[in-house]
Amino acid sequence: MLFNSLSFLIFFPLVCFVYFLLPARIRYLWLLGASYYFYMCWNARYALLMALSTCITYASGLLIGRSRSDPRLCKIWVGLSFGSNLAILFFFKYANFVLESLQKAAALAHIQLNLPAFDILLPVGISFYTFQALSYTMDVYRGEIEPERNLLKYALFVSFFPQLVAGPIERSKNLLDQVAVPHRFDYDRAAAGLQMMLWGFMEKLILADRAAIFVDAVYGDWANQSGAMLLLATVLFAFQIYCDFGGYSHIAIGAAQVLGIRLMDNFRQPYFATSVQDFWRRWHISLSTWFRDYLYIPLGGNRKGRLRRDINLMITFVVSGLWHGAAWHYVAWGGLNGAFQVVGGRTRALRQRVVSALRIRTDTVSWKLLQRLVTFALICLTWVFFRADGMAASFGILKKFVFDLRPGTLLGGGVCRYGLDMANLQLLFVAILVLLAVDWMHERNLPIRDSLARQNVLARWVVCWAAMLCVLVFGVWGGEYNAAAFIYFQF
Predict the structure, then answer these.
(1) Which of 152, 266, 298, 317 could be stapled to 338 by a disulfide with Cβ–Cβ 3.0 to 4.6 Å?
(2) Among all residues, which ones are annotated catalytic?
(3) pLDDT tens, residue by residue, 286-329
(4) pLDDT digits (tens, 9 = 90+) for 63-120
(5) What is the mean pLDDT of residues 194-210?
(6) 204-229 pLDDT, tens per residue?
């Protein structure tokens, strides 16, 4: 069930209405049933996989709790939990990728391998709920939480529908207790949650889905495009994926807030970052902190020297790239993000000496703007590998940036040949400016929702109805529109 569908517009109010009517002691059971129904709307059979992952990690938590006096036995239970869950994830997401890679590697050595190919449909959100369940196992092992003894409450933690299929990837320390406790209806909290959801719908329907039309048309025929057109499509993809995934996160956070549950922020003005490292403190925060806490730090983090730190960083980002997709261009995307941070760390002292020698003031608006533009350019470079259909296409597009720019193709209505007329392109660029303005206000600690909450009731309702009208009038929604899946559903 997509958030941007009529089904959800019926499902969510019904879930909330019944939740607050039910006796407090059984509300979590209603949410559990609603969450499984939400997931089963894609494929009912794959709910069994989620249930299996839930049972494995639930049992591992109990076994770890009973084996506190034997650290060796605790490690065995952790290993079995991680091994079995990652084996399921590997089969459904990476089996064909590994087999195809082995065949290609053998072909380079003039060896023919006839390996089987599996006809597998990737379960929606499997990477998200698997990582969330595994974080529970590790938190119990570290002694940060006590094992949950109620299987159904734990199952709701794994399957909670707002963030089930695309995050945020929650931690048991934050979410487990919240879903187990009944919440009373609070008007102000619900209003704030609905406003958050409305902003998410605006991001998705007005900006992301409109940009997707242009980006898909240009990238789908990249070999016949100019470098300038591909460059424009790449910049628009940067905003498309931000508003697509950020829109999902805002809808999820807002929906949970209506129910009285607080989810972690997943984005924090990422395109205002002043370095690639800073970008990853702001982008997909729930995943980047997951990898930091459960991979980078266990590998040694930055505690064992600069070389080991760089290796750990590269491993973390290569694995992050592989998490996003079973293809080498995703691995390259992750590796490139890691490499930029390694180079940035290695050259930091040199860059500081150059800035000092040239007497450049680093506390000026112009210097911050330059840092942000350079960072945005580097991130857009990595997005090429993320969006392109493969490694060959990625390098082909980068080659066009350098040797086949032809900026004249952007003039004379050339950009209007890719699914959007001039009016829609203008609307798209206005939407981007509005997005940046809102992010700038948050960057300056001037959140719009807090300012709106201080206004009188009439002003608040006028703003909210105007926003809803914008979604209905300017959103990519109509008789010929099919609700577009969120990009991160495929991961």
Answers:
(1) 317
(2) 324
(3) 999 999 999 999 999 888 889 999 999 999 999 999 999 889 99
(4) 999 988 888 999 999 999 999 999 999 888 888 888 888 887 877 777 877 777 766 7
(5) 91
(6) 989 999 999 999 999 999 999 999 99
Place of tokens 């949950």: 148
Residue type, 251: I
pTM for the model stands at 0.91
